[in-house]
């Protein structure tokens, strides 16, 4: 109830691991929007190159559910910690390989094929990552602060986003050949740090209890699909608003600003870095807020804002003004996206029992990645036919889906749950001690004697 002594170290270790894996995975999205359309694909047709680049990005998201299934099964069968270490190592190897891949000009069509192969490995690793990291933190954390602690782990994602885009911004002067390679090669340094930290993280106490009692699920995936498929579906819809919204408001917008010549590359990267920097504190703050008022109210705020933000987002972008573009990224990421991400760690974990928690939460979380992974591709196709209105309405539509799912998903940390935990804490603390007897001063004693 009060959390384990290692709760802070676990939260920090999970957050650092999430930072590294996000650096690797999201860095690919930035490179896909800014470089890969002409580096790995024919440059004769810019629109086709952009579509192919985003399709490659989507493939990584498409295989994430498989990574989530594998990681969830192993997490519920052998423990959370082995999944954390293995997924990070796999992601690091794949990312470094991207930095040394040959280009289309060097090997022709094989460049795209090799990029797809490495992207598949990235997707598997990232799919396995989230469930292990979040659940390790959740199961070590105090009951009354699980929103805060899982928010710390979720904050690893904006940190990774910040570092990835900082690397791309600083590498711009290196020229087209090295500007996209260096950020991926730098992942080798981060991966060593991450592995060392994760090896020191202790196994989840809830999983250890299950194992000691012989209650480990034999087939957690089958069990969660049979008994808890409704929560999988609800969490899937909740997640789409956040991750698909990011795919439009960040990944697609990076390409949109470049293709329409609305902002210089350095301006967009700066705007994204600022939003990511603010998002670090925002994610933790949103998570902590759920500990005070519940998971659902905070998620309602995020989904309502997402519904309303689609058209204003593109109206601001179309001004071409640097201040408006920066504001667009800040609202899209630190407010709309982080508001939802800060809730998911605790809410999704509480929807499932400890026996199948990794499988259930990971499956729902990663299935939504299939939709979000191909969203930039869909947004690009909509833009080709309808202009900016299509992507704007798509962003709002994802918000509507999340809003409906929020209303249909049970509150797991409402007023009743908070009161029950508070009462349990008071009972464990025991009756209050009798107040000490007043001590008389010398003067008072003298007066009493008299």
UniProtKB/TrEMBL annotation:
GO molecular function: transmembrane transporter activity
Transmembrane portions of the chain: 12-36, 48-71, 83-101, 107-127, 148-172, 178-197, 236-257, 269-289, 298-317, 323-343, 363-382, 388-408
Start and end residues of each Major facilitator superfamily (MFS) profile domain: 10-414
Pfam families membership: MFS_1
Domain of life of the native organism: Bacteria
Main location: membrane
Protein's UniProt name: MFS transporter
């Amino acid at each position: 109830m009060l959390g384990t002594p290692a709760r802070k170290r676990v939260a920090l270790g999970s957050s650092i691991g999430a930072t590294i894996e996000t650096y690797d995975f999201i860095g690919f999205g930035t490179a896909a929007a800014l470089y890969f359309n002409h580096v790995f694909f024919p440059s004769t047709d810019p629109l086709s190159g952009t579509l192919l680049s985003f399709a490659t990005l989507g493939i990584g998201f498409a295989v994430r559910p498989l990574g989530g299934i594998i990681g969830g099964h192993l997490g519920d069968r052998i423990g959370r910690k082995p999944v954390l270490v293995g997924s990070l190592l796999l992601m690091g190897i794949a990312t470094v390989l991207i930095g040394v891949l040959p280009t289309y000009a060097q090997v022709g069509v094989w460049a795209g094929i090799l990029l797809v192969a490495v992207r598949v490995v990235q997707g598997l690793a990232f799919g396995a990552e989230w469930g292990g990291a979040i659940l390790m933190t959740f199961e070590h954390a105090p009951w009354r602060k699980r929103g805060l602690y899982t928010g710390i782990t979720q904050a690893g994602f904006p940190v990774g986003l910040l570092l990835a885009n900082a690397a791309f911004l600083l590498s711009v002067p290196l020229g087209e050949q090295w500007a996209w390679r260096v950020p991926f090669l730098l992942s080798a340094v981060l991966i060593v740090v991450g592995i060392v930290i994760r090896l020191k993280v202790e196994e989840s106490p809830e999983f250890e209890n299950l194992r000691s009692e012989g209650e480990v699920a034999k087939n957690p995936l089958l069990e969660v699909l049979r008994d808890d498929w409704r929560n999988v579906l609800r969490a899937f819809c909740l997640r789409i608003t956040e991750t698909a919204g990011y795919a439009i408001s960040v990944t697609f917008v990076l390409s949109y600003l470049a293709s329409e010549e609305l902002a210089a590359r350095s301006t967009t990267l700066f705007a994204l870095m600022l939003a990511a920097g603010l998002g670090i504190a925002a994610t933790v703050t949103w998570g902590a807020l759920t500990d005070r008022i519940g998971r659902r109210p905070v998620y309602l705020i995020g989904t309502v804002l997402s519904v309303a933000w689609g058209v204003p987002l593109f109206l601001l972008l179309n001004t071409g003004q640097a201040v408006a573009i920066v504001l667009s990224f800040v609202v899209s990421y630190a407010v709309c996206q982080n508001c939802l991400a800060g809730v998911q760690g605790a809410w999704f974990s509480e929807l499932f029992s400890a026996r199948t928690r990794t499988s259930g939460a990971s499956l729902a979380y990663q299935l939504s990645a299939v939709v979000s992974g191909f969203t930039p591709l869909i947004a690009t196709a909509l833009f080709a036919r309808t202009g900016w209105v299509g992507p704007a309405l798509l962003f709002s539509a994802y918000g509507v889906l999340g809003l409906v799912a929020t209303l249909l998903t049970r509150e797991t940390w409402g007023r009743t749950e908070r009161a029950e935990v508070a009462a349990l804490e008071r009972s464990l603390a025991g009756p209050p001690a009798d107040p000490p007897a007043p001590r008389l001063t010398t003067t008072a004693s003298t007066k009493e004697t008299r």
